[in-house]
Amino acid sequence: MSVHSEIKKVTTETLRKMKFDKEKITMLTAYDFTTAKMVDAGGVDAILIGDSAANVMAGFETTLPITLDQMIYHAQSVVRGVDRALVIADLPFGTYQSNPEKALESAVRMMKEGGAHGVKIEGGKEISKSIKKIINAGIPVMGHLGLTPQSIYKFGTYKVRAKEEAEAEKLIADAQLLEELGCFSIVLEKIPADLAKRVSESITIPTIGIGAGPDCDGQVLVYHDMVGMNQGFSPKFLRRYLDLYTEITGAVAQYVKDVKAVEFPNEKESY
């Protein structure tokens, strides 16, 4: 067992130290109390209340429709279930891009009402003023570069980003800028593994990869994908640790069968 798994509360400083000590950081998503409790008990270092809740919890095709109020509700639910992990919440689309004042207002609400320990926002230089404003108010910010799902209509595709040298150079510059602005960590999504390695080595804050190879300082997956609840989503980077879709549908089918056959509830299960 690592020294970090015995720490009562993981903080942004814990993650920085883990990078320095070359200990990999683990992060998973959670959107509700029960899941957060299990994920935290499993020993992850950080929990992300991702705007992916729009997809896996609400059934939307993109992350764009979810509102700040809805994200705050998810954050409140998650925080109640966590004892140890650092809890970071996404600021959803439209709550920070337009101006720094709005960005700060959104981040303050997420911290005060949602109870999150920090916020994650997508983008580099374009949103630097918003990042600076939030950090200056004492709120921890996790950056997010590479494939930024909130910009899906700009990119038009969920394919790997930064394969071309110009985009790769911009990504490295953005990562260095995010560090300068005071971000405590950066998520790198769907970029070539060698580029993720270059980025991780060029900054002193931890990188957390999803589809960005093994050389990031940590990894993140969407919980529903990792435990196999989500059957229609099979990107190359995903490893399924369980097949809960099959397990759960099987259990439901058995329950239906038992009730129809008057085998449930039995004598022992009745008062």
Automatic annotation (TrEMBL):
Which Pfam families does the annotation name?
Answer: Pantoate_transf
| Cofactor(s) in the UniProt record | Mg(2+)
What are the GO BP annotations of this UniProt entry?
methylation; pantothenate biosynthetic process
The residues listed in the UniProt record as binding 3-methyl-2-oxobutanoate, with positions renumbered to this chain, are 51-52, 90, 120
What CDD domains is this protein classified in?
Answer: KPHMT-like (cd06557)
Q: Which Gene3D superfamilies match?
A: Phosphoenolpyruvate-binding domains (3.20.20.60)
> What does the entry's cofactor note say about binding and number?
Binds 1 Mg(2+) ion per subunit.
Subunit relationships = Homodecamer; pentamer of dimers.
Described purpose of this protein according to its UniProt entry: Catalyzes the reversible reaction in which hydroxymethyl group from 5,10-methylenetetrahydrofolate is transferred onto alpha-ketoisovalerate to form ketopantoate.
Descriptive protein name: 3-methyl-2-oxobutanoate hydroxymethyltransferase
**Species:** Chryseobacterium soli
From the UniProt record, report the name of the gene that encodes this protein: panB
